[in-house]
Design brief:
- There is one protein chain.
- The protein has one domain: Beta-galactosidase, Chain A, domain 5.
- Helices cover 15% and strands 44% of the residues.
- The strands form three sheets. An eight-stranded antiparallel beta sheet has the order 8-9-10-11-18-15-14-13, with no helix packed on it. It has a five-stranded antiparallel beta sheet with strand order 1-2-3-4-5, with no helix packed on it.
- The N and C termini lie far apart (46 Å).
- With 279 residues, it is mostly beta strands.
- β8 and β9 form a beta hairpin.
């Protein structure tokens, strides 16, 4: 009996260790060492949004995209290479790179507001909160206190959910304030200097954009100098805003937006893939 008890105990111990060794497929964190970035990822791509320390550089509430060639997590290693080893993450060392220019735009799926026939895009977030973090799911919220829309200052709360196996993130937006005019809200994609290939499916609120991964001249120059590369494949970005009534290009952003009333929750989806990704 004692023998079987010991065998059972060993089996339980091995099972517990096995569970503890499960590798997460989704990850995210606040990044104080890089001017208050908030970064996250799943198997297919990594993303970040800009925080208070970057405000003097006039960032947006848009989403930055990091390309990944493998399912393994890369956020911490990218930051370590850039800020400790001095190896820029704009260069592909074999696992991916940051080559998507955001500037003051919606970037890769950031929120956009249309009011008074004008496109309104916010700045850096003010506060962050992690709501859920498991090996397969990461949920966080960013709060923006100073979203300017048609002369009014609104508050933006955006909750983003990233899950394993999903090509798109889920974004839930709530705007509050004293603006009483009509507005359209949803997600958008920055098209950079030249429009490469895009499509819209208005009936489902879907927009899609594809471009050369090295469309940014700075990233193209850095990769060429490092490894002689003139191409890093193709990037595909998509946004879906259920109920969208407008899907078009505005001020260099491909948008999918729908009518919105303050205090409501608007849900849209955004994500990206890379032609160089493989399991």
């Amino acid at each position: 009996m004692k023998k079987f008890f010991l065998i059972g105990l060993v089996a339980l111990t091995l099972t517990a260790c096995h569970k503890e060794a499960v590798q997460p497929k989704v990850y995210g964190r606040y990044v104080p060492e890089r001017k208050d970035d908030f970064a996250w990822e799943n198997e297919y791509a990594a993303f970040r949004m800009y925080g208070p320390a970057l405000r003097p550089e006039n960032p947006s509430n848009g989403v930055d995209l990091w390309l990944k060639s493998r399912p393994e997590l890369v956020v911490d290693s990218f930051y370590y290479r850039e800020h400790v080893l001095g190896l820029p993450y704009h260069i592909n060392y074999g696992k991916g790179l940051d080559c998507y220019k955001v500037g003051h735009t919606c970037g890769c799926g950031g929120m956009v507001v249309i009011a008074n026939d004008t496109t309104w895009i916010g700045g850096a977030y003010d506060r962050w909160e992690i709501l859920e973090q498991t090996p397969d799911k990461f949920v966080f919220r960013l709060e923006y206190d100073s979203l300017l829309v048609a002369g009014h200052i609104l508050h933006e709360s955006i909750t983003i959910t990233a899950e394993a196996g999903q090509l798109q993130n889920k974004a839930e937006v709530v705007l509050t304030g004293d603006y009483s005019g009509e507005m359209l809200v949803g997600g958008g994609i920055y098209l950079h200097d030249t429009v490469d290939y895009y499509l819209t499916k208005p009936e489902v609120g879907y927009v899609f954009y594809e471009e050369d991964a090295l469309s940014d001249k700075t990233a193209a120059k850095m990769n060429y100098e490092y490894n002689g590369s003139t191409t890093q494949g193709r990037v595909q970005i998509s946004v879906k805003t259920p109920g969208a009534t407008l899907t078009e290009i505005r001020d260099g952003n491909l948008i999918a937006v729908r009518p919105y009333e303050l205090c409501d929750t608007l849900t849209y989806y955004f994500g990206a893939t890379w032609s160089e990704w493989s399991e």
